[in-house]
Structures are given as structure tokens and as C-alpha cells.
Amino acid sequence: EYGTDTLEMSPMDLTGRTVVLVDDLLATGGTAEAGRRLIEGMGGAVAFLMVIIELPFLPGRARFGECPVQSLLTEVDGALVPSGPDGAGPGRSFARRPGPRAGARPGCKAS
């Protein structure tokens, strides 16, 4: 996204585990995507992405496809405002994604 860096995680076996990925800021989605790949590389699955602040004018949310994304605050016209019930800023209309099929394993695989 803005440069090159390293993201590391303590090695552990996450086989069969479903986790919530938490990030402080969703902009381009590069850091969260790297976290998702680390988790999947250890055998885990990401149930959804939770972020504190989302910058909706950047493509971070779109990068996660069918993976649910929830933000606490959204930047709107230079101000941080509480996100709406669908995880998007007030007045924004993002289509809600259908939940997993009955019997489907929860998670959002990296494409």
C-alpha cells in the first residue's frame, strides 16, 4: 500500500479454529489482508474483520469480498462518526452480504 514492511505473528497451530481479525485502520486493506494470509497459513479461518476506523473512500472493504467487515468509526467529510448498523458510515448504503449457508464452515478465504 504505502510501502514495504513486515508483518509477523507468533507461530501456532490454528487448524480448525475460527478467529476474528482486528485491525486499527482499514484504508487499502493491505495490512488486514496480510493478517488474514498469516492466519490461513497456520490453518485457521477468519470469521470477520473488525476495525476501529474505516476510510470508506479507499478500497479496503472491497478487498475482502464476501468476508464481513465491521467498523466502529467511519471517516465522513474529515470527521470520525460512529458507523451505521451495517458497519458503514451514516447515510451510506452498502449491500449486506448473506450469511453462510446452513452447515457451511464460517470464514472468509483469501482469493
Would you kindly provide a written description of the structure presented here, covering whatever features stand out?
The protein has one helix spanning 30-41; strands at residues 18-26, 45-54, 69-76, 79-82. By secondary structure, the chain is mainly beta. The longest helix is centred in the N-terminal third of the chain and has 12 residues, at 30-41. The protein has 1 helix and 4 strands; from the N terminus they run E-H-E-E-E. 11% of the residues lie in helices and 28% in strands.
Question: In a nutshell, what does this entry contain?
Answer:
With 111 residues, the protein is mainly beta.
Q: What's the count of strands?
A: 4
What form results from the Cα inertia axes?
A: globular
The stretches of 5 or more residues where confidence is low (pLDDT under 50) are 91-103
Structural class: mainly beta
Blueprint of the fold:
Blueprint: E1 18-26, H1 30-41, E2 45-54, E3 69-76, E4 79-82
Parallel strand pairs: 1-2, 2-3
Antiparallel strand pairs: 3-4
Which features does this protein show?
single chain, 111 residues, mainly beta, 4-stranded mixed sheet, 4 strands, globular
